[in-house]
Amino acid sequence: MEVFYYVVFGVLGIVVAALELSKNNKDRINTSSAFTSFKNNYLVVYSLMMAGDWLQGPYVYYLYSTYGFSKGEIGQLFIAGFGSSMLFGTIVGSLADKQGRKRACVTYCITYILSCITKHSPQYKVLMVGRVLGGIATSLLFSSFESWLVAEHNKRGFEQQWLSLTFSKAVFFGNGLVAIIAGLFGNLLVHSFSLGPVAPFDAAACFLAIGMAVILSSWSENYGDPSENKDLITQFRGAAVAIASDEKIALLGAIQSLFEGSMYTFVFLWTPALSPNDEEIPHGFIFATFMLASMLGSSLASRLLSRSSPKVESYMQIVFLVSAASLLLPIIMGSLIAPSKVKGGGISFSGCFQLLGFCIFEACVGLFWPSIMKMRSQYIPEEARSTIMNFFRIPLNIFVCVVLYNVNAFPITIMFGMCSIFLFVASILQRRLMLIVDKPKTNDWTPLNERNTEEDPLNI
What we know:
The protein is an all-alpha fold. Helices cover 77% and strands 0% of the residues. Helix 2 (33-54) packs parallel to helix 8, helix 4 (71-99) packs across helix 6 (124-141) and helix 11 (247-274) packs antiparallel against helix 17 (412-438). The radius of gyration is 22 Å and the shape is globular. The chain crosses the membrane at residues 6-22, 43-62, 74-96, 170-189, 201-219, 285-306, 318-338, 344-369, 390-406, 412-429.
């Protein structure tokens, strides 16, 4: 069965290379040299930030287990990370809009470096502090950098279509190629050089420090709404009003929460799905294969976003339906093939089919990221971008915390079925969004600060 892994990886690699090399003028966007320089600078920073994140991921659980903590204690540490992201995410998002997105990006680097340092301590309380810091950093990573990019792109007067090019390349490199290299580099540090499970966290801190230096030396500051008379409560109220009064923003938030909730749940489920009887599977190689499938998706997204048709609101319906179908495979295979009772060995025949389905799901993930970034840039108002984006993450983090807390309470097929239903609902909501967008506009966009005044005339 070992050959199977190499065949899947090889086929995916060939398809990705063919897609990238076969791009013609219709698939490419003609840009200026100024934009190319701006884009490359952002891609370098984003790749360094993602390297700092990807290096840590595969070794967090492993590190905690080497310190002797039980599965329940490790679960509490993970819940603390998602919980802190939920509790503090909206606060740091609002501060980013008010105090500056560049400052927020630098804060991300400092916070995550401190989180990496805590991994040197075997003390549970110190590690808990590290998880809280990591949760805050995650909120900044998935809001402040994108908010800075969109604002800076518009401030420099670049064409709106060029933004999708930066998004697709950021996912291709940061969420694909960098993830593969980080996984291999982490494996090299831990196993080949025998530096121990803390080594990837030290390497991550170094990459984050380099990225912070690039930000400080080459990025300019931009803001959402820097008004002096607006406190956090006022910003929260404004963001809530924007979500409640604009169905497009509300739908976008629901779609994002449903898809990302399913995606994070999949992260916890794919290992037991492929090795239900403790089969020996190459986790690192399978992870690299998933990332290659994600690169395939982002390469497809780059082609789609460079064209005027089909619109992103249209093709994402299909992406959600395909992803829902791919996560039904464990349920289908479980009903068609009797589970083996033999412990150990290599991956089963059923596992091979499931792995192919999971690769399709990861390709959908690669399509999802640049596409949702494109839609967020179109529909979320600039003055509260980071705040609203972190509002979107509240239901996501609640959902992941509930799943983590009850991960052993339900059969794995029930969990996959739940994720598939969520993705199907996301497809329905995406269709609703497309219908709203296609309606002829009857009035102009009301800026968020004017809307706040209309909603609450006493709040000036």
